[in-house]
Write a structure and sequence with these properties.
The structure holds two protein chains of two kinds. Chain A has two domains: 49 residues, no CATH class; 132 residues, no CATH class. Chain A is built from seven helices and seven strands. In chain A, strand 4 and strand 5 form a beta hairpin. Chain B is mostly helical. Chain B has two domains: 97 residues, RNA polymerase sigma factor, region 2, helix turn helix motif (Rna Polymerase Sigma Factor, Chain: A), CATH 1.10.1740.10; 92 residues, Winged helix-like DNA-binding domain superfamily/Winged helix DNA-binding domain (Arc Repressor Mutant, subunit A), CATH 1.10.10. Chain B has nine helices and no strands. In chain B, helix 2 packs across helix 4 and helix 6 packs across helix 8. Chain B is globular, with a radius of gyration of 20 Å. Classes of the chains: A alpha+beta, B mainly alpha. Chains A and B meet through helix 1, helix 2, helix 3, helix 4 and helix 5 of A and helix 2, helix 3, helix 4, helix 5 and helix 6 of B.
């Protein structure tokens, strides 16, 4: 460990309130002569302070969640879903929007093959799940393609989805007809051999994704 | 709440017991909301992300089988929900910049008068978040654990299967790398007040 790294570690420990007396004395003496470390400590203290927030959640949080739960229960009992194609005009507009925000390597949604969920009672697009990416009323916000894997830990692609994965979703419906399921990593791993392809682009990602490929 | 109690509530909630789910929300809402606030920098976005998180959790409770703590699973959902909102907010900004037609610019939601302090805090949190996201995976992960989730050294060591000493040194490297990015970008000043305090302390020592 270099001297520099040694004092970086003392600074880091001090931020966490974990620096012992001996280390504190050593750091203080060093700070008197090292402007660079003084600046590092000041900057990191600012960052640490900015993140040392403890707020009480607003009452609206619990209320909103429980209302959403109630709605979801009612919807699942009363609304019959059917799959249908997105109106070409709406999809074209959505595709134009989506293209602007997709990373350069992402596929452009296929404007002829979009799939949305509609309520057969009202003909209005509805969200299957709270964060379904498409089919929201008045906003056919087509999700990126399955190649847009930012934030995904692993994505496995299936021709036929294993039943235990199918039970967990679907969570995403892509414009090209593919359907995505957020699944625990272990579940994805258990079906590794059945996948036609597995991508692991971002091990830091928050979710694992199983993708049922459409027939196109 | 013990692990067993938690799992019992998860199973009950998955079978439609909304009182059990309400207990789960009450238990975890503070951590979820605070994490979402630190990531998004906005109370409204944090509320939206938190609600999305719990609703998503509710829809997928059957998939939770207790291999990890519920808090870890909720952390992943919160991170994802927050990043979704951040992406949407970026889209909104892009649209408004690229639109030529007067009146076609989507209005940002009016949150009422915003005190300077709130704006400054949001900018700081956004700058930190963007710098954290620019770090390599190992550094980002350990910083998220310590600074965003306030995990102890021991818990981080257990989660990453490392010695505590290694956690301390990796955390120090990650913080130094974060500082480097923030300094290079120079978009926002964090250090005015902290630096003044430190300089004052050092000056007093010389008196």
């Amino acid at each position: 460990m270099t001297d520099h790294e040694h004092f970086e570690e003392l600074i880091s420990l001090r931020l966490d309130g974990a620096l012992d007396e001996e280390g504190e004395a050593e750091l203080r003496a060093h700070l008197e002569t090292c402007r660079e470390c003084r600046e590092l400590l000041a900057l990191l203290t600012g960052v640490h302070d900015a993140l040392s927030i403890e707020k009480d959640p607003p009452e609206a949080l619990l209320r909103g969640v429980m209302e959403g739960v109630e709605r979801a229960e009612k919807t699942s009992k009363t609304v019959k879903m059917r799959w249908t194609g997105i109106a070409a005009g709406a999809l074209a507009a959505a595709a134009a929007l989506a293209v602007a925000f997709l990373p350069h390597n992402a596929k452009t949604p296929d404007s002829d093959s979009g799939i949305a969920a509609y309520s057969s009672d009202t003909g209005t697009p509805v969200s299957l799940f709270p964060d379904t990416k498409i089919g929201l009323p008045g906003e056919p916000a087509v999700c990126g393609s399955v190649d847009d894997l930012t934030g995904i830990r692993a994505a496995a692609y299936f021709r036929e989805l294993p039943a235990d994965i199918a039970q967990t979703g679907p969570d995403y419906i892509f414009a090209n007809g593919d359907v995505g399921y957020d699944v625990p990593e272990e579940l994805l791993e258990a079906h590794r051999n059945e996948a036609v392809r597995i991508d692991t682009p971002d091990p830091a990602g928050a979710v694992c994704l199983a993708v049922l490929l459409s027939d196109q | 709440m013990t692990v067993e109690e938690e799992l019992r509530d998860v199973r009950a909630a998955a079978s439609g017991d909304s009182a059990a789910f309400e207990r789960i929300v009450r238990e975890h809402q503070k951590n979820v909301y605070n994490l979402a606030f630190k990531l998004t920098g906005s109370e409204q976005d944090a509320l939206d992300a938190s609600q999305d998180t719990f609703l998503k959790a509710y829809q997928n409770l059957r998939a939770f089988r207790g291999e990890s703590r519920l808090s870890v699973w909720l952390y992943r959902l919160t991170y994802n929900a927050s990043m979704d909102i951040i992406k949407k907010s970026r889209r909104g900004k892009l649209i408004s910049l690229s639109s030529d037609e007067e009146g076609a610019v989507p209005e940002m939601p009016d949150d009422g008068p915003t005190p300077d302090e709130q704006v400054e805090r949001r900018e700081r949190l956004e700058a930190v978040r963007e710098a954290v996201l620019a770090l390599d995976e190992d550094k980002r992960r350990i910083l998220l654990m310590r600074e965003y989730r306030q995990m102890s050294y021991a818990d981080i060591a257990a989660a990453l299967d490392l010695e505590e000493g290694t956690v301390k040194s990796r955390l120090a490297r990650a913080r130094a790398a974060l500082a480097e990015i923030l300094k290079k970008r120079g978009t926002i000043s964090f250090d005015t007040q902290s630096k003044r305090q430190i300089d004052d302390k050092e000056a007093r020592r010389h008196d």
